[in-house]
Write a structure and sequence with these properties.
There is one protein chain. The chain is 82% helix and 0% strand. The protein contains five helices and no strands. It has 137 residues and is mostly helical.
């Protein structure tokens, strides 16, 4: 478990949060009408979309700091903040998804599961690295 593995676990959640957060913050109506299945949860609220975009960008900032400086005291809070969103989001789509096509449900649920697991993996990798370094010292 080295720094490269931690960075690898953080890069996709970081990019996910930057794209989704930025899109919601800058072009909320476009996100609502274009991103798969989002328009199935009406009504559109620009206020809600921009607030979500800002919060998502805040998580992206934390993940970005952890990505650049993958010290455990950055990785754990950043990945935990991401996971507090990603894990319940996965379960929402697992149990309450209504896409018009079954393949959308499968792709959406699988993608959400993988991204949520990456946040948890980053925490585990950082803690295991610290424990290994502590026992080696």
């Amino acid at each position: 478990m080295n720094t490269l593995a931690i960075r690898a676990a953080l890069v996709i959640p970081f990019l996910d949060e930057v794209v989704v957060g930025g899109w919601n913050q800058l072009f909320p109506e476009s996100f609502y009408t274009t991103f798969p299945t989002v328009d199935l949860n009406p009504p559109f609220s620009e206020h809600f979309a921009r607030d979500f975009g800002g919060a998502t960008l805040a998580i992206a900032l934390m993940l970005g700091i952890a990505l650049v400086k993958p010290k455990t005291h950055y990785v754990v809070p950043a990945a935990a903040a991401f996971s507090l969103f990603a894990v319940p989001h996965f379960f929402f789509h697992l149990f309450d998804t209504h896409p018009p096509v079954r393949w959308q449900a499968v792709v959406l649920t699988t993608a959400n599961a993988l991204v949520a697991l990456l946040g948890l993996a980053a925490i585990l990798l950082a803690v295991l690295r610290d424990r290994r370094e502590a026992t080696a010292a």
